[in-house]
Every structure is written in C-alpha cells, then in structure tokens.
C-alpha cells in the first residue's frame, strides 16, 4: 500500500506542476482520481495539505512567505477534520456490523417463527406478513388439529423492531406447549395472558386473535385479546361486516377471561384477519380508512386468497412509497365448497 | 536526566500556553509538520478537558529517548471529579460537552500511545506518547 501511496504522491506533484503551468482541465480530472485513491487509502485531509505544502515548496522555492505561513495555518485547521473523518469511518464500520448482526437475528426469527399454510380441501387460505424494519413484531401461526380443525393465531406486539420480535418468540413457544387441538380459543388466550403477564415487561402489550375453523361444521370459533377486529365477507350479499370481538389485551391483568364467539360460514364466504399495520397505513400524512382496505380486497376478490393478500400488500406498499410504518400482516380464509 | 516541563491549567488562556510549549518541544525534536500539528491538537484537547471538567490540573511534557527511537510524552493530570465510565468516554460519538470536541478518542488517534486512569472523586491521569517516525 505504501508503494501505491508514494505513486499517488508523486502523481499529485506532477499534476500540480502541470496545472501551475497551464491550468487545464486534464490536470483537474487527474487530481480528482488521485483524491479518490487517497480516500480509499484513508489518507487524512491534514496529510493532503501537508503534501501540498511540500510539493509547492519544491515547485516554487521563492514562494511568498505569507502564502507559506497561510498554508501552515490551513494544515492546522484540517487536523480536527481528519479526526472527525476517522470517527465517522469507525461509526460506519460499527453500523455495518450491527446491521449484519440484525439480519442474522431476522433470519433466525424467520426460522423460529416459521409456519406453513395448511392444505385443506375446500379451504383457500392466503397470508402475507412483512416487517417494517428487519424484524417482525407481528405473528401468525397455523395449527392443524387431529380432528381436522384448523387453528389460526394472529398477534401483534404494540411496538416494533427487536423487542417486539423477541417477545413473539416467547408467545410462539407458549402456544406450542399447549395441546392445541384440545383447547378452545378462549382457553388458549387465558393461558397466554398468564404467560405474558408474568414474563413480559409491563410497558409491552400484545394483542391476539385466536380462531379455530371446523370444516365439518363450517363453523369458525374465535376469541380476541384486544386485537384489531377482522372482517367477515358474505358472498351472497357481497358485503363486509366487522367481526365482533371483545377482550382485554394480553398481559394487563393476571386473571382474565375471554369470550368465545362463533360464526357460521357459507360457500365463497371469507374471513379476514389483520394487524393494525394494515388498517393504519398512511397516505402521506393521512391515515387510510378501513373502507379502503376492503375496497382493494373487493377489487381482487375473484383471485385465489394468496393473490388477494399479495395484491393488497403491493397496493399499500406503493401508497406508502415502499416504506412501511408498521409491520403488515393480512390473512384471508375462504370456504370454497 | 530528561527535561520535563509542565503547564498549569486554570483558565482558558492556559490552554494556549500548553499548546505553545507542546509545539516548541515537538519542533525541537524535529517532528514533521503534520505531527507537530497533531501533538498540539492533542495537547489542546487534554487541556480543554481539564479546563471544562476538572477546573484545575496540569499538562506535562517529557522527551523520551530509547535505544532506537525518540518521542514526546504528554500527560494530563487533574484533581477533578474523575470519570465514572471510562469505556463510555472512549467511545466514538460520545461527547458530554455537546460540542465538536474530538474528545478522548480523538486524542488517542492523534498520539501513538494512550493510557488513562481515573478515580471518581479524586481525579484523572492520562499519559500519551508520540514517537518520531
């Protein structure tokens, strides 16, 4: 590297010599390239000024004394710039290290919280979950029970980023430890509430909706812990209706009971679950209306569930200039036959 | 015997005296122009720290000579409040004065060797060395 440096230094001198003679653009382009090489090799501004002083005294031995002194003055002024530059470099390296650490964590989260959409005849399920930053504070999970039932959990930690993501892993393992197919939604929430209340900082809240679909009875049972209400789409009438939910957010009180709701579903009806990242999308400074989400869903209603959720996501991603403000999770379940 | 000299820091004006003595010694030892400027900036930072946080202390200079190289030692001693969390003040991006001070990480970069000791309630001692290249 020293060799390259020496080369650059002599190059700088010869370029300066040429420039003093004819002030042409070629030398200026040359010094631009040398300057880039200096930056690449971490040469500090004070060293460049010093190099300039040396080159100048060689090229113009009879240089005016005032000019000479002024160059020393400039060198002095550059020292702190050099320090600031080094500091920025160090901080940039630290930032890169942090970023890659977080991306490892995000990958790990994906593996830990991974779930696959169950294949059930007569059911069409589509889901999309995209974090605002690298780590996701939304969570959804499918469970296929032995009795043919499908359990669907959707949760949202109030807040986002790493703390929310860490919290989600705990929820997932708590759910995993339950014999889910034997437990009804309201019991699962009751148990989870206890886990959250005991283990999570009181400033952190989790909302959740847990539902179970019984294909044999075309019945959806669900319970909610303060979660964003979902929607029921009546295919015959072509109308959406907010799903009735009531229940305290997880982790507020140690002993909380949740209410079970039931919903009968007919052919081509849909159930939509989402997190507030969907309903609180922003168009500039304006929060969107829930109506807008439903209208977009309606626009794509003839497509398979997965294509609907993907298209809705794409719509709102674009609306927000491709920068999500909050984690975005949308799930659609449609009874086909 | 190696020559040693100190400058007491009590008011802002003393920072200039410390700079002056540091530069003279660096010049006499024939440090390069850039290194003279760096040593002086380090002296300035150390003296400013004393002036801002400790109110009273001193900057001392000593010529170092080993078998194969020569250098200048700059040390700062004060009887101020001391530093509670040294690793924090040694971190980039941390300055309590809120100003554009290079801070202690800056001093460490300007010099070749850097050592700090601090007792809360008793004071801080910083030793630095710059060797002639």
TrEMBL record, chain A:
Record's keyword annotation contains Ribosomal protein: no
UniProt keyword annotation of Hydrolase present: yes
Superkingdom of this protein's organism: Bacteria
Residues covered by the PPM-type phosphatase domain: 124-335
GO molecular function, one term: phosphatase activity
Gene3D superfamilies on file: KaiA/RbsU domain (1.10.1240.30), PPM-type phosphatase domain (3.60.40.10)
Keywords (A to Z) from UniProt: Hydrolase
Protein name stated in the entry: Phosphoserine phosphatase
Organism, as annotated: Oceanobacillus chungangensis
TrEMBL record, chain B:
Domain Histidine kinase/HSP90-like ATPase: 34-133
SMART domains noted in UniProt: HATPase_c
Keywords: ATP-binding, Nucleotide-binding
Family annotation (CDD domains): HATPase_RsbT-like
One Pfam match: HATPase_c
GO terms of molecular function: ATP binding
SUPFAM superfamilies to which the protein is assigned, alphabetical: ATPase domain of HSP90 chaperone/DNA topoisomerase II/histidine kinase (SSF55874)
Coiled-coil ranges (or none): none
Protein name in the entry: ATP-binding protein
Gene source species: Oceanobacillus chungangensis
């Amino acid at each position: 590297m020293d060799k390259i440096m020496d080369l650059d230094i002599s190059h700088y001198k010869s370029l300066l010599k040429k420039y003093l003679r004819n002030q042409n653009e070629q030398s200026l382009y040359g010094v631009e390239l040398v300057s880039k090489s200096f930056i690449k090799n971490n040469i500090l501004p004070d060293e460049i000024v010093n190099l300039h002083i040396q080159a100048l005294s060689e090229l113009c031995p009879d240089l005016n004394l005032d000019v000479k002194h002024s160059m020393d003055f400039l060198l002095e002024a550059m020292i702190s710039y050099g320090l600031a530059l080094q500091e920025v470099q160090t901080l940039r390296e630290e930032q890169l290290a942090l970023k890659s650490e977080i991306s490892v964590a995000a990958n790990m989260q994906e593996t830990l919280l991974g779930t696959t959409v169950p294949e059930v005849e007569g059911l069409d399920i589509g889901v999309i979950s995209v974090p605002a930053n690298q780590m996701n504070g939304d969570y959804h999970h499918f469970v296929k029970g032995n009795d043919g039932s499908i359990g669907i959990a959707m949760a949202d930690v109030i807040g986002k980023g790493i703390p929310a993501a860490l919290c989600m892993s705990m929820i997932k393992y708590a759910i995993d430890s339950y014999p889910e197919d034997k437990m009804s939604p309201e019991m699962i929430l009751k148990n989870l509430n206890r886990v959250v209340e005991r283990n999570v900082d009181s400033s952190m809240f989790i909302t959740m909706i847990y539902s179970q679909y019984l294909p044999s009875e075309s019945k959806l049972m669900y319970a909610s812990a303060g979660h964003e209400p979902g929607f029921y789409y009546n295919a015959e009438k072509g109308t959406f209706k907010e799903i009735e939910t009531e229940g305290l957010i997880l982790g507020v009180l140690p002993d909380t009971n949740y209410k079970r709701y039931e919903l009968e579903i007919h052919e081509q009806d849909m159930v939509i679950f989402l997190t507030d990242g969907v309903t609180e999308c922003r168009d500039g400074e304006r929060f969107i209306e829930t109506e807008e989400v439903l209208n977009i869903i309606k626009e794509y209603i003839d497509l398979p569930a997965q294509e609907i959720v993907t298209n809705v996501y794409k719509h709102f991603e674009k609306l927000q200039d491709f920068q999500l403000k909050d984690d975005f999770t949308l799930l659609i379940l449609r009874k086909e036959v | 015997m190696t020559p040693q000299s100190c400058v007491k820091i009590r008011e802002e004006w003393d920072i200039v005296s410390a700079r002056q003595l540091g530069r003279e010694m660096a010049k006499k030892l024939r440090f390069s122009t850039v290194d003279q400027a760096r040593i002086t900036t380090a002296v300035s930072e150390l003296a400013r720290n004393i002036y801002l946080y400790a109110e009273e202390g001193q900057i001392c200079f000593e010529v170092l000579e080993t078998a194969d190289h020569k250098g200048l030692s700059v040390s700062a001693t004060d009887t101020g409040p001391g530093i509670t969390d040294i690793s924090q003040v040694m971190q980039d991006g941390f300055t309590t004065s809120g100003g554009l001070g290079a801070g202690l990480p800056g001093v460490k970069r300007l010099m070749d060797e850097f050592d700090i000791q601090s007792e809360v309630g008793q004071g801080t001692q910083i030793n630095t060395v710059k060797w002639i290249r």
